[in-house]
Amino acid sequence: MDAPATALVERTFREHSRRAVAVLTRLLGDIDAAEEAVQDAFVTALARWPADGVPPSPPGWIITTARNRAIDRLRREGTRTERHVQAALLHDVTSPPQEEGPVVDDRLRMVFTCCHPALSVPAQVALTLRLLGGLTTAEIAAAFLVPEPTMAQRLVRAKAKIRDARIPYRVPTEAELPDRLPAVLSVVYLVFTEGYAASAGEELVRGELCAEAVRLGRLLAELMPDEPEVAGLLALMLLTESRRPARTSAGGDLVLLADQDRTRWDTELITEGQELVRRCLRRNRPGPYQLQAAIAAVHSDAATAAATDWGQVLALYDQLMALAPSPVVALNRAVAVAEVAGPAAGLEFVERLDLPRHHLLPAVRADLLRRLGRREEAVDAYDAALALTGNERERAFLRRRRDELTADPQSLEA
């Protein structure tokens, strides 16, 4: 088999399969049918491209082939009326849709259509992450802090409810957009966080997911310019993304925020993100994403880690806890407490938290114990974090920290 052609099929799948599903869903009105058609098209590509050569436009070839396969299936199985088949036959997938509505981008349209109010918000978010975000069931389970089989059942139930209730996959009207916005924002942010800190795999960062989330965030900001939480989410992603060049070493190893070379941060993204934060502050309608963006802005203001205004960070986390309390927010607040009042004070808050499936809780606990000189407890906490970590780069970092303690007890910080 032609290795270059096969590699191109694989790359096309990674980069364009989600768009193909979005386009086919707009055409067919059925996500399951769209997914099956796109999968068939890629199987066909694996067979044909090595023998026949790569087409001039691989994504276009996939979409056209998927459309033709879908039409064949519709006719064969009789799952659609002849009117639907004729509509699909006459539709030119390379042309813009006849009826766009307020949301033009195919993938953003799909995010809004999947976030249907008939489903619970967690189900909306999980289903959209699976279908449009390109995340695996295991990755979504990690984002929701639940076992993978539990998440798999949720996804099956969500799709069954849509099918049994005959919920249409249609683009919501402009008046319906605000009601769906919270779930849409959750989807975009979870795609970004999975890209910035991959829950599993060999690499710490999945740049294509970060880029797609930022792209969708910009589209949302254009679509809904008067929604402060949209601006807050975009600011949060831009300010976080600005640190990505310094987040890993030349060899791909994890570099903590305190140890990053801040000259490598992207100043254009910082400037854009900080301006968005200032606009949010002027509106005086605080929300969770705006507060998280303000925290990121405080970090971006500091030329060095030592210059960080941790008092301001802690005050913002206090506001965030009052507005949108969660164990993850409480854990981040405990880190700020440790910087303001010392590791013992931070540890006191950490010990009260319960995040049974999140490796960050034992990792933070391990770091605080290390700083307090409690070596054996720190080693045990690092082992607990390692047991919950699926990303190899994070595992390597935690192993190094643990091994430093076991090899040299004098390496502790006072």
UniProtKB/TrEMBL annotation:
What GO biological process terms are annotated to this protein in UniProt? DNA-templated transcription initiation
Q: Where is the RNA polymerase sigma-70 region domain?
A: 13-78
Q: Does the keyword Transport apply?
A: no
UniProt keywords, alphabetically = Sigma factor, Transcription, Transcription regulation
Q: Provide the RNA polymerase sigma factor 70 region 4 type domain boundaries.
A: 112-162
Entry keyword annotation includes Repeat:
no
Q: Where is the DUF6596 domain?
A: 180-280
Gene Ontology terms for molecular function: DNA binding; sigma factor activity
Top-rank taxon of the source lineage equals Bacteria
Family from the record: Belongs to the sigma-70 factor family. ECF subfamily.
Listed PANTHER family? BLL6612 PROTEIN, BLL6612 PROTEIN-RELATED
Under what name is this protein listed? RNA polymerase, sigma subunit, ECF family
| Organism for this UniProt entry | Blastococcus aurantiacus
